[in-house]
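Regression test case RT-17, inverse folding.

Input:
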């Protein structure tokens, strides 16, 4: 009976386990293939499963400690939700109320300036709202106009997002948009993250069209044409979540797995290739498996794989991770009425604050707060402020409350607060990341029966993690001659 170990019980490991479970159940139904039944064991270091996906509750409000949603455009997470019976639980963001502000710091004062309509990530595609926006200086607006005539440019080597954005729009665009947007997604910095790994579409557009503005407009027209051609489907929301929060996905996945296969509080110390398989050492026990799916963060994977292959371990250890802190504050209906409309605000580095962003959760999604409550969720940390993790919860709350007062004049006493610290949880795809992935894949191929999954490789969002776990399981099953796409 083929035995497979999964290391790490976050969404990547759980998606891998679910793929194996589906296969196991289909094998169980077939007597003729009974010799092909598989067995899997999932090792998770923490006492609970789900990794950074944690949903909490307070005062009738739903609180996300980690991810609050996923991009609708990436189908893998929603597809998995439908498979595990959560199709009717999927909810979309309230895009009619979508409005995001940037904090402008001028003359010692903070001002919320709405991001102009037509901005796609940081690329302006509508002339009038951009020209009229008080967000950009005249100099940047002139750069935007000139960008329209940017010649095609194929970079010889990878570069940072900041380098590319600066070439097209100048440094103000890096400070006001590129950096805060990347902080929100990666907890990373535009001056470090790789364009090819993080914004591959931009690199392609630049090579083909030159101007990002023209290329974006063209792709938007194309998308509109396709949508019009397809039945008159309602527009899809930008973000998707679940009525009862992201942990609903974890709970539904766990409910579909055999409890006997799930070993929580079981950190794996080492993986050793042995007897055409792998010896997995966890605690005082070691066990033999035919194959292993490593779904722990790359740095943890490096430590576990050190004795199996020091070169592979060194490449994995070189994938940087940043830490973050989320702080949720609940308020009454007076505060709800006084907060600006929209999804929240981003804080550029030039504003000189520790907060990176804040979300007005009650506006962003339905089913999050009763009508008489407001939820403000703030993000801190990231690559530029790892030290925040060493502060106490009280110190962090003090920083957040001071900055909310300074930025949006919110001085009211919160009804409840929650602080969550996530140490080294967000992978940073630095310049050269794609080349590193190729070296990792070459080394992995020399270790039969090993597959890698998780947010350290090809996408840090929940949908990409689901895809990576599912693909890792399929790869192992295929190596064992057990995969069929059916
Ligand atoms: C604060 C925050 C907000 C985010 N917001 C969003 C969002 O809104 N939308 C979105 O799409 N994505 C978001 N992300 C990113 C996304 O949530 C993560 O990238 C994804 O959930 C990671 O899943 P994972 O399973 O790869 O890793 P993890 O969730 O980190 O799970 C890895 C697991 O491996 C275990 N482990 C580690 N070492 C060992 C070992 N030696 N033995 C056994 N187990 C081990 C850990 O305990 C952990 O449970 C956010 C991330 C954070 C931290």
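Golden output:
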């Amino acid at each position: 009976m083929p035995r497979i170990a999964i290391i790490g019980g976050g969404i990547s490991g759980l998606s891998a386990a679910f793929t194996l479970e589906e296969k196991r159940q289909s094998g169980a139904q077939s007597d003729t293939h009974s010799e092909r039944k598989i067995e899997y064991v999932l090792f998770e270091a923490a006492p609970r499963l789900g990794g950074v996906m944690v949903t909490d509750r307070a005062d009738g409000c739903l609180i996300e400690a980690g991810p609050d949603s996923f991009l609708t455009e990436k189908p893998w997470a929603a597809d998995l939700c439908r498979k595990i019976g959560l199709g009717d639980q999927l909810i979309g963001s309230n895009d009619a109320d979508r409005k995001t502000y940037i904090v402008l710091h001028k003359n010692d004062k903070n001002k919320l300036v709405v991001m102009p309509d037509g901005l796609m990530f940081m690329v302006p595609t509508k002339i009038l709202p951009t020209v009229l926006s008080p967000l950009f200086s005249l100099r940047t607006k002139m750069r935007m106009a000139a960008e329209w005539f940017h010649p095609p440019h194929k970079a010889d080597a990878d570069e940072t997002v900041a380098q590319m954005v600066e070439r097209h729009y100048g440094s103000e665009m890096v400070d006001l948009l590129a950096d805060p947007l990347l902080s929100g997604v990666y907890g990373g910095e535009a001056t470090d993250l790789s364009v090819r790994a993080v914004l591959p579409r931009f690199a392609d557009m630049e090579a083909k069209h030159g101007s990002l503005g023209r290329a974006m407009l063209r792709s938007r027209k194309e998308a509109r044409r396709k949508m019009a051609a397809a039945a008159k489907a309602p527009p899809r929301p930008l973000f998707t979540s679940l009525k009862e929060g992201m942990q609903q996905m974890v709970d539904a996945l766990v409910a579909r797995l055999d409890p006997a296969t799930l070993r929580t509080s079981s950190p794996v110390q080492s993986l050793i290739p042995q007897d055409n398989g792998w010896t997995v050492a966890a605690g005082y026990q070691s066990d033999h498996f035919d194959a292993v799916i490593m779904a722990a963060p790359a740095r943890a994977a490096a430590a576990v794989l050190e004795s199996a292959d020091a070169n592979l371990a060194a490449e994995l250890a070189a994938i940087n991770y940043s830490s973050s802190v989320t702080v949720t504050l609940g308020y009454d209906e007076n505060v709800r009425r006084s907060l600006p409309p929209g999804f929240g605000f981003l804080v550029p580095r030039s504003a000189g604050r520790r907060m990176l962003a804040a979300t007005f959760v009650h506006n962003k999604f339905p089913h999050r707060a009763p009508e008489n409550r407001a939820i403000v969720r703030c993000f801190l940390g990231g690559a530029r402020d790892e030290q925040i993790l060493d502060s106490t919860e009280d110190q962090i709350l003090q920083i957040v409350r001071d900055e909310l007062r300074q930025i949006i004049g919110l001085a009211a006493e919160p009804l409840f607060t929650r602080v969550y610290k996530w140490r080294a949880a967000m992978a940073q795809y630095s310049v050269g990341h794609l080349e590193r992935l190729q070296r990792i894949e070459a080394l992995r191929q020399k270790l039969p029966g090993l597959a890698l999954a998780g947010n350290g490789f090809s996408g840090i969002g929940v949908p990409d993690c689901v895809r990576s776990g599912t693909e890792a399981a399929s790869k192992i099953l295929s190596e064992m001659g057990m995969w069929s796409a059916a």
